[in-house]
């Protein structure tokens, strides 16, 4: 059965690829082993972006994107990948919860992205493109 899984440790590269730390995602890992196609959604969570958009009744830019691609098999993280995630979460690792969440990363999955689509809210985005176009 499909399962929505938050993936908070995704790193994107310039070449339309990325990787994420395959930790705490047991259902996702099982699903990817059977079917490697993925769709990740990233949403602009900035409060100023949302406040301005709601005040104006329209988005100045799409509020998010869907990234479609294929995930690789699980592999050990490289030293460089481990160092990057450690730098990213270093301030939060000073807290008990941060140490619990981000201390045991060992494996990643690479993702090759093949398509990107904006997240659409036609009522507030009709000025950005034809709202009749399909998602």
UniProtKB/TrEMBL annotation:
Signal peptide: none annotated. Residues 1-78 form the Pyridoxamine 5'-phosphate oxidase N-terminal domain. Coiled coil: none annotated. InterPro entries: Pyridox_Oxase_N, Split_barrel_FMN-bd. It comes from the Bacteria. This is Pyridoxamine 5'-phosphate oxidase family protein. It comes from Nocardia albiluteola.
